[in-house]
Amino acid sequence: MTILTARAHAKVNLHLGVGDAREDGYHELVTVFQSLSLHDDLEVELLDQSTAEGSIVRSLSVTGLGAPAVPTTPDNLVWKAIDMATELHRSQGGAPLPMIDIRLRKGIPTAGGMAGGSADAAAALRVMGQMASISTADLLPLAARLGSDVPFTLLGGTMLGTGRGEQLVPLLSRGTYHWALALNSAGLSTPKVFHTLDDMRAARPDMARAGDIKELSAALLSGDPHEVAKYLANDLQAPALSLLPQLRRTLNAGETAGALAGVVSGSGPTVAFLCESAEQAVDVADYVLDTGVATSVAVAEGPAGGAELVG
Ligand code: C5P
């Protein structure tokens, strides 16, 4: 029996500057991504039967954190990623591929602002890269079609993202950063958070904006988490707080516990606290959980890699 296992890493945005809405509904972003050790695992079993048409996916099952909220149908980004790569392979005259059963083990919160679904899709692309000999360069356009965060989760590390977030340039970063993560089972819809930001800006055109990334880039080069903490910024934090006001208490609790800084991760509701050490991250996570301002907590370090085959 052949099983391929791919690891999907979560991300946090150290900086998320959101511009105006474009014609296509997306917003121009200037963002700095960091991949985290927090991950999902995608196990793909290659069956004896192969097929030259239709989906190669026979089944998809999901276990672990928040599993009941994750679709196990062709709507799942994992399934879409497999179908898209299969189509590319067939369009290039590739041989019939084996049918597959997919088992996804979740460790990344669903709808948590940590690119869990995107990372799963990136892991699925890595598996297809192996099964159908597709290069990273050829996987990247598929990744961009699947979602704005999929290209970054494919590559990982520390990167500047522009456009929808899919145009990537590596950023120099020294050191390892320790995070405490406050998870919230409420979940937030990414489109809703972006729309709320548009509405807030329409009502208050002078609302503060995240600005440029000059200081953050210099701080990342220094490798000093105290410096990096000064420049964490997220334009989606204000709309996320307006949709889930209790996140303010979560932010306060982490800072009371001694975190260097806290920021809503992406479109939320996960709150990420940058800490000065792995030990402090555990202390902050414990405090936040005890205070009752998070559904669950996790610790992670970054930068990690991108989606990768393991084992
Ligand atoms: O690209 P993805 O499908 O992950 O994006 C989900 C939603 O987030 C989009 O439909 C859009 O509402 C919002 N979004 C945005 N601008 C971006 C990225 C995402 O408005 N740059």
TrEMBL record:
The keyword Transferase applies. It comes from the Bacteria. GO terms for molecular function: 4-(cytidine 5'-diphospho)-2-C-methyl-D-erythritol kinase activity; ATP binding. Keywords: ATP-binding, Isoprene biosynthesis, Kinase, Nucleotide-binding, Transferase. It catalyses: 4-CDP-2-C-methyl-D-erythritol + ATP = 4-CDP-2-C-methyl-D-erythritol 2-phosphate + ADP + H(+). Residues 76-157 form the GHMP kinase N-terminal domain. The keyword Kinase applies. Its EC number is 2.7.1.148. Pathway: Isoprenoid biosynthesis; isopentenyl diphosphate biosynthesis via DXP pathway; isopentenyl diphosphate from 1-deoxy-D-xylulose 5-phosphate: step 3/6. HAMAP family: IspE. Catalyzes the phosphorylation of the position 2 hydroxy group of 4-diphosphocytidyl-2C-methyl-D-erythritol. This is 4-diphosphocytidyl-2-C-methyl-D-erythritol kinase.
